[in-house]
Write a structure and sequence with these properties.
Elements lengths: L1 E5 L3 E8 L2 E8 L7 E7 L10 H9 L3 E5 L15 H29 L2 E11 L1 H12 L5 E5 L5 H7 L4 H7 L19 E6 L8 H9 L10 E6 L8 H14 L1
Parallel strand pairs: 4-5, 4-6, 6-7, 7-8, 8-9
Antiparallel strand pairs: 1-2, 2-3, 3-5
Length: 252
Amino acid sequence: MITLLENEILTIVKDECNGIPFLVYRPSPIDCNKWATIFFYHGWSSDKQRQHIRAHILATMGYQVVMVDGIHHGERGLLDYESDEVVREWLWKVVAKNIEEFPMLLSYAKNLYQIDMDRVAAAGHSMGGITAAGLFSAYPELKTAVAMNGSFNWKRTVELFEEDEVLKKSFETCSKFDPALNKDAFNQRPALSIHGELDDEISPMADLELYRSMKVGEGLLETFVFSPHEGAGHVVTTNMMEEMILWLGQYL
């Protein structure tokens, strides 16, 4: 554990758990016994360091934020991120690894970083949003999840990509975590999908279709919210960050 920054506003710590490098952001001074904690995941070709502003904003709102490097990203190596072949082969494998590693990471961090286990959330953008949705589906200890330009409807998201056998085979590595196949995960557990209407990388249609498929009578529609942002593409806007903060303030 290495303290990278400690001032009157923010404390940033760098740590590692069994080869998983991560950063912890929390407000200063540290005067809290238990922290509401957000595990935030980056998108394809990004890394934990490049999420600094987002982590900083969330920490100044009173949350502890854990930023994790996915495999073949950041300190864990590189890929040819611009190659369509590489994207098809590796995107879902990175998501699957994020989900598989989460219990070990949470177990390591919960006491060391005073995590309030009743107030744990997952969030992320793009591939990180897909990861957050998968964590929400796989681990009921998460209170809520926020996906920005991600997907809670994975199989449909894959179908909306160009037909490709390599992509489908890669998706098989984590299809069991598909939130759309585990609608019970949404029962009394709030989840938010924020999506740019003009996103041409991960189609917003998949989550819109999932939202429409949920019946009020099942008690699910009230807990899963799909929020389209007019005029936005595959980017995180100020309005999206504001919506995520308001959501977390209500549900975390």
